[in-house]
Design brief:
Elements lengths: L11 H52 L9 E3 L2 E6 L4 H5 L6 H5 L13 H4 L15 E5 L12 E4 L2 E4 L16 H4 L26 E5 L21 H4 E2 L21 H4 L8 E6 L4 E5 L16 E4 L3 E4 L7 H6 L13
Parallel strand pairs: 5-7
Antiparallel strand pairs: 1-2, 3-4, 5-6, 6-8, 8-9, 10-11
InterPro entries: DUF1559, N_methyl_site, Pilin-like, Pre_pil_HX9DG_C
Protein name: DUF1559 domain-containing protein
Keywords: Membrane, Transmembrane, Transmembrane helix
């Protein structure tokens, strides 16, 4: 340019180099950003479990025992049937600053009547792990409510209460009265018609599991949204068993043990390498997949176990229970050091 300095722009090669450098920087930063996001989601999950454990402690202090895992009942319309009651999470609503939602439930009926349809479809944020993208809702229920004339909506929970190694369920309405006898086999905190008191946590509140993650997104079985309903006390909705390993990788539908997949009963998580657990003292621990546990077969089913959820479970003589099973029992008399998990 006459009388001045000539203008010079970027060449094509220079522009390509700049774009390439930016691409490399983004590629380097992306894993760090993703890791930071996952760390935040994991901390959110820890916070949820801590709130649930503290709510359970508040309930026990006020009522005198922890909530029932499943207050089963009968109904005159179905005199031979066993109808499930509400979940432990419904019972805890007043202690989670959700008293209006608690008041919306009709406890004179089974949880799965249309009287409770609106409450069932309500999302409770503390019950959804931030990493569990399949939880929450509302979602169309895969089976109708008892007195419904069409489909209803439900919400999914990412958490479950500890039933220990064994869960018992009445085979018929007549068996409901015998549940106190059957429940002597149950060694966790929540089960059918349970009334566990803090004083019964004889193994120590800091060494006894109360709640765990159970990632809905990990279910690979047909119709996954039929399970993990937050409001229902049914066995496959809001209970987990320590007889199954954390994060089982194989999920058939075997006829043995409880007749359900290991995925439905096991603690599971999307955080990787293990799962978060709330203890009975309100603390939250991350237990690794590698924690010492009892032997299981290739399907994730405990070895040497016979029976089922209705008639009872027996373990073969000499069955070795691991640290994970000891943590799941409330009064097994085991001594478990913190360095074991």
């Amino acid at each position: 340019m006459a009388g001045g300095r000539p203008c010079r722009g970027f060449t094509l090669i220079e522009a390509i180099v700049v774009v390439a450098v930016i691409g490399v920087l983004v590629a380097l930063l992306l894993p760090a950003v993703q890791a930071a996001r996952e760390a935040a989601r994991r901390m959110g999950c820890v916070g949820n479990l801590k709130q649930l454990a503290l709510a359970a402690a508040g309930y026990e202090h006020q009522v005198g025992c922890y909530p029932m895992g499943n207050p089963v009942r009968t109904d005159a319309r179905f005199p031979q049937a066993v109808l499930d009651g509400h979940s432990v999470f419904v019972a805890l609503l007043p202690f989670l600053e959700q008293k209006p939602l608690f008041d919306a439930f009709n406890f004179d009926r089974s949880i799965n009547y249309c009287d409770n349809a609106t409450a069932i479809a309500t999302r409770v944020a503390v019950l959804s792990c931030p990493s569990d993208h399949a939880a929450g809702g509302p979602k169309p229920a895969l089976y109708w409510l008892i007195d419904a004339v069409g489909p209803s909506m439900t919400n999914i929970s990412s958490y479950a209460g500890c039933s220990g190694m064994v869960y018992r369920y009445p085979a018929s309405a007549a068996e409901i009265a015998r549940m106190p006898l059957h429940n002597r086999q149950c060694d966790g905190v929540f089960f059918v018609d349970s009334r566990v008191r803090r004083a019964e946590i004889a193994d120590g509140a800091s060494n006894t599991l109360m709640f765990c993650e159970r990632a809905h997104a990990r279910l690979t079985i047909p119709g996954p949204d039929e399970y993990h309903w937050w409001s229902d006390g049914w066995m496959c909705d809001n209970h987990f068993l320590t007889a199954f390993p954390i994060n089982p990788t194989i999920a058939p539908d075997p006829a043995g043990y409880y007749g359900y997949t290991a995925q439905l009963w096991a603690a599971s998580s999307l955080h990787g390498g293990g799962a978060n657990f709330a203890m009975c003292d309100g603390s939250v621990r991350f237990l690794k997949d590698s924690i010492d546990t009892m032997a299981v077969d290739g399907n994730g089913i405990p070895v040497g176990v016979a029976g089922n959820v209705e008639v009872g479970v027996t373990f073969a003589p000499g069955t070795r229970f691991g640290v994970y099973q000891h943590l799941g029992s409330r009064a097994g008399g085991e001594v478990v050091g913190a360095d074991a998990y």
